[in-house]
């Protein structure tokens, strides 16, 4: 009985550790990329920047927002709800490009230190 426990125990441990990554939500990985302060780096715009907190709250041009990632879109809810397509460019997600769904204009943001 003791030998069976010595064989079965490590197998269960290896399976538990090996499969633990399968249970993580892939959207959480995307959400983590947004956490932080972002400054608009374009010309004239209605944007100055935004902050995303890890609890999916933040500020957008100084106004309180809730944000999330839904179906590959960055969704910002405040007075209105807007959905942006997004891409990250550069090392460590240095540059974020937002595109209002259906718009031909891109908005460029850089992560602040």
CATH topology: Lipocalin
Total number of domains: 1
Judged by helices, strands and strand pairing, the structural class is: alpha+beta
CATH hierarchy, class? Mainly Beta
Overall residue-averaged pLDDT value: 80
Tell me how many strands there are.
Answer: 8
Lateral arrangement of strands in the main beta sheet: 1-2-3-4-5-6-7-8
The residue ranges in which pLDDT falls below 50 over 5 or more consecutive positions are none
- Fraction of residues in H or I helices: 10-25%
Instruction: Tell me the CATH architecture.
Output: Beta Barrel
> So what's the overall shape?
globular
Can you write the helix and strand succession as a string? Answer: HHEEEEEEEE
Distance between the termini: 57 Å
Task: Characterize the main sheet.
Answer: 8 strands, antiparallel, barrel
What would you report as the Rg, rounded to the nearest angstrom? 20 Å
β-sheet strand percentage = 35-45%
DSSP helical segment count: 2
Describe this structure in words.
With 113 residues, the chain is an alpha+beta fold. It has a single domain, classed as Beta Barrel (Lipocalin). 24% of the residues lie in helices and 42% in strands. The protein contains 2 helices and 8 strands. The protein has helices spanning 2-19, 26-34, and strands at 36-40, 49-52, 57-60, 63-70, 73-77, 81-89, 95-100, 106-111. An 8-stranded antiparallel beta barrel has the order 1-2-3-4-5-6-7-8. Strand 1 (36-40) and strand 2 form a beta hairpin. The radius of gyration is 20 Å and the shape is globular. 11% of the residues are buried. The mean pLDDT is 80.
């Amino acid at each position: 009985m003791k030998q069976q426990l010595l064989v079965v125990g490590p197998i269960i441990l290896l399976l538990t550790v090996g499969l633990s990554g399968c249970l993580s939500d892939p959207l959480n990985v995307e959400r983590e990329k947004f956490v932080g302060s972002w400054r608009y780096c374009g010309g004239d715009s209605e944007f100055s920047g935004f902050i995303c907190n890890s609890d999916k709250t933040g500020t957008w041009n100084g106004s309180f927002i809730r944000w999330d990632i839904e179906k590959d879109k960055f969704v910002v809810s405040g007075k209105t709800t807007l959905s942006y397509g997004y891409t990250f460019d550069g090392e460590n997600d240095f540059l974020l490009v937002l595109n209002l769904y259906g718009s031909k204009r891109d908005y460029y943001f850089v992560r602040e230190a």
